[in-house]
Fold:
Amino acid sequence: MNNQLKTILLLGGLSVLLVSLGGAIGGAFTYVFLGIALLMNLFGYLYSDRIVLRMSGARIVDEAEAPALHQMVRELADRAGLPMPTLAIVQDPTPNAFATGRSPSRAVIAVHEGLLRLVTPGELRGVLAHELAHVKNRDTLVATIAAAGATAITHFAHMIQWSAILGGGSSNDEEEGSAGGGLLMAFLAPIGAMLLQMGISRSREFLADDYAGRLTGEPEQLASALQKLQAYGEHMVAQGATGPQPATAGLAIVNPLAGGGMFRWFSTHPPIEARVTKLHDLARELGRAFDERVA
Structure:
């Protein structure tokens, strides 16, 4: 399925969730939320990258401020046949990175300060190549709209939940039933938005890992970076930390604070162990191809 069709289906799915929220409440709310859905579609397409950068607290950095980062990304972008993306840094100790933007010409790659401190230059190249793969495959539009749309749905759902809790009961059975349906939908809508993200995000990560390994010629470096992120996440979870907000988790290269076990069923990313295994398989494949060329 190409990303243009994915985008249309995603926008449609998120719109249905919003309209369903209004329909469950009843009355004029159906039309109010229909209008909100139409505006979300328009702003999601035009400005979702800016929304995500603001949500994450990312700050655009020029070449004078981060020359080594710009040089590394420019070299990889030239190799991938892509225009130089805008670069941003997030003042967050959690090691991560993400790409956003509706097209390669408007792409932004954001890197957390924690990642810059944790990984080696070779590992950082692997992470950056992974994010450029999302730009190359035009995954960024789909993932960014998913993040912005899921955030909007979650906020509206929370507003409805608190309104129902603080508003108390109703003496009218019909109004009480309508409020109950709205409250139920307010709990279900964020779950539906998360499931839509999951269906889009998980397969993209394997493809981006493979492209990054081939672009750099060193898939082991990306594998090493992923293992460091996993170790960091396990350490932070043991200390009681929580992961990034669910709405934007699908954008990042990993959710380093995601839980294990059954929680992986609801993760926007495939297990890091599976990704590392595939990268090691790719390293062996590239090694055999090199041996055949020099033989």
Observations:
- The first helix runs from residue 3 to 25.
